[in-house]
């Protein structure tokens, strides 16, 4: 069976060049980077070389890049340490955030007594930034704002430069989950004044188990994993040299080909909209995901005009991998918070959301196969309902 992979927002396949770079390091660089002798210092030099790559991409200093295992760890570290070490007493966030942000914020409320305030989205998944400004104006509590750059389920892009400016104006800290946008679009943190951001390498054809946190030097954040001085004492533990090399190599390739890849995926996304609109009358597209410029080009969130909770399994049986939500929620029996926040009760009862996400490897023949499969499933579903 030919396989069609359309869940790149969950994870991406490793590039051959990334595998080669990692294998080379595994073969030749076995030293502990914390060791003082030359074998260890060679490994340390490799880490620092890749730290400089990441810093150059974000236009920040290398000291502001802390390697972690993934975006989830980075987000946990930032939110928890902001409460425990920076005196944050209030967190402003939204029901649209990734589960790792949402659950960490809830835990800070339960365990630390932090006030938790939610910005509610409209039906398109947008936030009222005037409401955010009002919240920032009307409190004397030390505040952390945690709002993601691109939503991982519907692809909406947030104006993080404007949010960061508001936070700066009212002396609040700003954390943005940038897992879906790092390596997919230019990010200049010398101009976008976020205090904290996160990344996972496996979202741009790097390895799983490697990521980083951006922590602005002026923030004063402290580590929550202790027991060693690695990563500027912000993340104790022997560094994953191989994973860091894979992250750096994948970032190199993504930055070099960013315009080429973006143009290809914009074309694939437009073709997907065209084909699905043709094959599935009544189909809708959630949030701004069908709009160019206000959504991430890697992702399209669709709302099928029929109810079929088993559609992910049925597509998989036809050799097509897609998601019915984020990867972290795909096994849940109930819809995600994102969908519950933007869809009406009628849509929740009668429609089926589906997330399609692309890479530079996605072809139009992949989309043709998807459209054909969805048309077959639609017909079978409607026939079953009419029996």
Give short descriptive properties of this protein.
globular; 42% helix; 387 residues; alpha/beta; 3-stranded antiparallel β-sheet
- How many individual helices? 12
Major sheet description: 7 strands, mixed
Write out the strand line-up for the largest beta sheet, numbering strands in chain order.
2-8-7-6-5-3-4
First CA to last CA: what distance?
Answer: 31 Å
Given as residue ranges, the uncertain stretches (5+ residues, pLDDT < 50) are none
Please tell me how large the radius of gyration is.
Answer: 22 Å
Q: What portion of residues belong to β-strands?
A: 5-15%
Query: What is the percent of helical residues?
Result: 40-55%
Order of helices and strands: EHHEHEHEHEHEEEHHEEHEHHEH
Provide structural commentary.
With 387 residues, this protein is an alpha/beta fold. It has twelve helices and twelve strands. It has helices at 16-28, 38-58, 71-86, 99-112, 129-137, 160-169, 241-256, 258-279, 311-317, 337-342, 345-350, 364-386, and strands spanning 4-5, 65-68, 90-93, 115-118, 143-146, 173-177, 196-200, 211-215, 284-285, 299-304, 320-321, 352-357. The protein has a seven-stranded mixed beta sheet, sandwiched between helices. The chain has a three-stranded antiparallel beta sheet with strand order 9-10-12. A two-stranded parallel sheet has the order 1-11. Helix 1 packs antiparallel against helix 7 and helix 3 runs parallel beside helix 4 (99-112). The longest helix is centred in the last third of the chain and has 23 residues, at 364-386. It starts with a strand and ends with a helix. The model has no long low-confidence stretch (mean pLDDT 95).
């Amino acid at each position: 069976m030919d396989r069609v992979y359309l869940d790149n927002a969950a994870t991406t396949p490793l590039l051959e060049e990334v595998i080669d770079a990692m294998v080379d390091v595994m073969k030749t660089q076995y030293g502990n980077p914390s060791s003082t002798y030359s074998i260890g210092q060679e490994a340390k030099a490799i880490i620092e070389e890749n730290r400089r790559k990441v810093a150059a991409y974000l236009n920040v200093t290398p000291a502001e890049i802390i390697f972690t295992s993934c975006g989830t760890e980075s987000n946990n570290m930032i939110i928890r340490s902001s409460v425990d070490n920076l005196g944050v007493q209030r967190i402003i966030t939204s029901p649209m955030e990734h589960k790792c942000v949402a659950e960490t914020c809830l835990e800070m409320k339960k365990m630390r007594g932090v006030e938790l305030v939610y910005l509610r989205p409209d039906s398109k998944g947008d936030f009222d930034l005037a409401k955010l400004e009002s919240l920032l104006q009307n409190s004397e509590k030390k505040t952390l704002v945690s709002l993601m750059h691109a939503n991982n389920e519907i692809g909406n892009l947030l104006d993080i430069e404007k949010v960061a400016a508001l936070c700066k104006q009212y002396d609040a800290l700003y954390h943005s989950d940038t897992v879906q946008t790092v390596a997919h679009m230019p990010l200049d943190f010398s101009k976008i004044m976020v205090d904290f951001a996160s990344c996972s390498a496996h979202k741009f054809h790097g390895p799983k188990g490697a990521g980083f946190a951006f922590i602005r030097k002026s923030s004063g954040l402290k580590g929550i994993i202790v027991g060693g001085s690695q990563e500027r004492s912000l993340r104790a533990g022997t560094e994953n040299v191989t994973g860091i090399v894979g992250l750096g190599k994948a970032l190199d390739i993504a930055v070099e080909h960013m315009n080429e890849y973006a143009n290809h995926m914009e074309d694939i996304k437009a073709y997907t909209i065209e084909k699905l609109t043709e094959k599935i009358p009544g189909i809708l597209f959630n949030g701004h995901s069908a709009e160019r410029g206000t959504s991430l080009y890697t992702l399209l969130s669709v709302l099928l005009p029929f109810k079929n909770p088993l559609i992910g399994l049925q597509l998989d049986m036809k050799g097509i991998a897609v998601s019915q939500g984020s990867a972290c929620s795909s096994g849940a029996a109930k819809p995600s918070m994102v969908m519950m926040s933007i869809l009406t009760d009628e849509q929740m009862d009668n429609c089926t959301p589906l997330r399609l996400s692309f890479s530079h490897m996605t072809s139009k023949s992949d989309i043709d196969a998807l459209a054909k499969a969805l048309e077959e499933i639609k017909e079978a579903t409607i026939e079953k309902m009419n029996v």
